[in-house]
Specification:
Layout (H helix, E strand, L loop, with lengths): L5 H9 L10 E7 L2 E7 L1 H7 L1 H4 L6 E4 L2 E6 L4 H13 L9 H13 L3 H14 L1 H6 L1 H8 L6 H13 L2 H4 L9 H8 L8 H15 L15 H11 L13 H8 L8 H13 L15 E3 L6 H11 L13 E8 H4 L3 H8 L5 E7 L5 E6 L9 E3 L5 E5 L9 E4 L9 E3 L3 E5 L3 E4 L4 E3 L9 H5 L8 E2 L1 E11 L1
Parallel strand pairs: 1-4, 5-6
Antiparallel strand pairs: 1-2, 3-4, 6-17, 7-8, 7-17, 8-10, 9-12, 10-11, 13-14, 14-15, 15-16
Organism: Rhizophagus irregularis
InterPro entries: BACK (IPR011705), BTB-POZ/Galectin-3-binding (IPR051481), BTB/POZ_dom (IPR000210), SKP1/BTB/POZ_sf (IPR011333), TLDc_dom (IPR006571)
Protein name: BTB-domain-containing protein
Length: 476
Amino acid sequence: MSTKFHSELSQDISLLLNDTDDYNVIIQTGEGKNSREFRAHSIILKIRSPYFKNLSTKWVVQKNNMIEIKKPNIRPTVFEIILKYIYTGEVNLTKRPGADILGLLIATDELLLEKLFRHVQNHLIKNQTAWIKQNYVHILHTISKLSSCKKLQDHCIESICLDPQPLITSKEFLSLDKDILYELFKRDDLQVEETVAWDYLMKWSIEQTPGLGSKNNDRTKWNDNNYKALKETLSKFIPLIRFAEIPSDDFFDKVRPYKAVLPHHIYEELVLFYYKDTLPKSITLPPRVGKVKVESKLINPKQANIIACWIERKNEKNVSLDKKYKFDLLYHSKQSGLNINTFRNKCNNQGACLVLAKSQQSAKIYGGYNPIGFTNANGQWRGTTESFIFSFENSEDIQNMKISRINNNYNTYAIYDYNSYGFSFGNTFNLNSDKRIYCSNNGYYDGNLNNVLNPHINQNGYFIPEDTEAFKITAT
């Protein structure tokens, strides 16, 4: 039986990284003041990277048996990571800024370091969420032509669709490439009000149109040529606007002034729509609903998306969902009255359900997810590992949401079906027959429970709901 000493071999080879005697390659990276030379061994480079094995003479100069390679497009801080990986098989991106990691991604793609490329792309998506959100335009412009970066590009597009605000309000938005903007506007899951979409499309188009832009953005001073040029810029985007979703007052104030940039037949159809409620024939598109469809008085679509992420056990915001979700309203106390029997009649045997409740004393929204549904059982504990309770500070909050999942040690006590309750999540969060919602930390849900329930529960452990909703959850 052979004995393997891989660790010793790797350690010995890594010593060559700092060996200044036997190198035969000089690699010049960066430009100007931000440049640096690295010394390396051709045999190591060729073994580790197909790029160096088949290197074009365009970037190579032979001098006195020394190979000189120029890579001005790779920053020294990035190439240092690459060279260490080539010699040692090690890489540590923990404290690296997002800009270096993106540069590393592009460089590893060029140098055909496939394993490192995959690692860097996954790290960027998983660990640089905040930096990506702040640099959507730069990232998309950098990677849009690289098919190998499709995973990162899809991540950026889907994140933007979930929360477009950081992109459309950024200074860089007006310089966004038209093809990237087109990809965004044609999607049904771009979660933005259509009036807002129109506003920012106009700002972008004015900036992109020759003769207009920041120096000539007062439309009262435009001539026919200006409008003609703007119409050309907008031409491919007009069919993507869901005009039927723009309220009539917004159409009058925001769309009508730009009638000259709309095709005549489309504008006439819109006039008929707003005056006679006749749907446009040329550009009737479905509303932008995203992957979560909900009609609620208590939560908004972004909050519904967060709840769907929790259902999939994805605790990060703005991540892509694996399924599409539909929240069908089963019960609304303001319509049907606050009554546990009515709640049961409408919600029993409907499958997975979500309940929401707003307190009279605060703006806070409380809720619970029951993946196994409510039944007619009386006095029966029912088990699941997927139930949770949660709270939002108000109907717009997406920053301070809190979740408490069923404690794995007590998952057989997740749901309690009892005829004196409308709903009961382990006797922790329940609607009682006295029309009060009681909350207590009895240990069935996890340690974040107090953060979910407090501080708006009174000293008797209950609140009186101002409004309550229940939804059937369907995932496809």
